[in-house]
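INFO  loader      accepted 1 record
INFO  loader      residues=134
INFO  predictor   begin
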Amino acid sequence: MKIVEVAAGLVYCEGRYLIARRNPGVHLAGFWEFPGGKCEVGETLEECLRRELFEELGIRIDVPIPFQIIRHEYEEKIVELHFFRCQIETGRATAIDCAEIRWVWPHELGDFEFPPADRPIIEALQRQTMGRVS
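INFO  predictor   done
INFO  writer      dumping tokens
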């Protein structure tokens, strides 16, 4: 089965995370996700993340810090999601190649419909913030 490598950004600012809604007509349309996309041939995961965030949102990020890798099997493919924590260095996030974007607190992530592969990440982010005073 085909393995698709994806880099996704846990873009955070002042305690909130940036999420994006997938465009109509694409795989998992309408679901919310952490922005990112498929790696191209010869591209590192970090290069992929930087390119995707610029193309989708018009932002440049600081150094991405590896957070977690999730492997998820769909009927037609296996997706290996590489999540990175990062912050915006330049630009203002705009929904260029996604239906809409939102900045949300970790405890609000459960209010949005994400693909099943993202659930462990959401749980990890919520666990990290428990016990912290905002």
